[in-house]
Amino acid sequence: MSDDFRIPRSPDNDYSDEWAGKRREFLKAKTGADLTHTGQYSIGTDTLPGNIENFIGVVQMPVGVAGPVQINGEHANGLFYVPLATTEGTLVASYSRGMRVINECGGVKTTVVEQFMQRAPAFIFSDAREAREFGQWVDDNMEGIAAAAESTTSVGKLMHIHQWSVARVRYLRFNYTTGDAAGQNMVGKATLAACEWIKATYPGKCLYLLSGNMDTDKKHSHLNVLHSRGKRVIAEIVLKKEVLERVMKVDTKTLAKASVLANTGAMMAGAAYNGPHSANGIASLFIATGQDEANVVESHAGLLSHELLDNGDFYMAVTLPSLICATYGGGTGLPTQRECLELLGCVGKGKANKLAEIVAATVLAGDISLACAVIAGHWVSSHDKYGRNRS
After folding, report:
1. Can the keyword Transport be found in this entry's annotation (predicted)?
2. 383 a catalytic residue
3. Which domains does the chain have, with CATH numbers?
4. Which of 151, 166, 334, 368 is the most buried (most CB within 10 A)?
């Protein structure tokens, strides 16, 4: 490629305002695009190394606040104002409406059940029997494998390894705890060290690929529903019949019948989530708080459960088995993202489970609101009112 088409870069300080400006001018000359707004930002470029390459500016996205919502969790406890970054009119208002119902019913109970992050190497042998024998060797040598993996991190801990044989390949799925970091890079480095130790220590010959794709990194999989990737977090509430009728104009019996229909439709479609729209709240919260946005594809999967109680009240629960979120590392240290985390009281170490509970509570609020809007006939009219259906 001709140097005339190479993006300008500095070998000394590529993250400076000066070089961001040079790249914008270069792009304007090549494409005609005027990047005036992209080039207006308040963040210091010294915060960017490790988060971006070929920096040219920022994409400014509206942030609204929903709530407050009463959360009765083990980590998140109290009233929370939830920042949601979105361009979809009606979304923030809808989540606030669901949060009002939650508050009038006494709050949402949240529980982080377990949490793991995976890397899944594949080891290749001469035949299936050798692969099976290797699996037993791995079980017998867990102490050494864990020591090698954990030598690369002060935070990550190797908890267990799942194993599967296919043909002459043995797939291993390393499961770690990663503190307040999401941990994908952490466990990649740790698993590489473990695999090298295995290769050097195993008495036979083995080859490996660091990821055999069973970690399903940034992809949805049913395996993650069964064996948690990220945090398995549950948000549950008993919706009072009187509150739902007064606020949402919906009867709990009607909601129960509609939920059965929705479950069947989701099952026929093969959907990753059977509730109304978990990805909306998760994506908006992720963008606002500096999460890896690609993790929405894993994190939105889950199960919405319901039960009509004898007294007419309605039990509802969201289970997110692969919620990947962090309060330390990645984009969480960038200035505006940090401010949104401060709004939630979730800055720094020791707060990742708190953020997970807030995310799950937000998803539940959104599902309550949208499910009732569809039943009561407010779905389309609310989008008309707030400007979504302008055509």
Report:
1. no
2. yes
3. 16-60 (no CATH), 64-114+231-385 (3.90.770.10), 121-209 (3.30.70.420)
4. 368
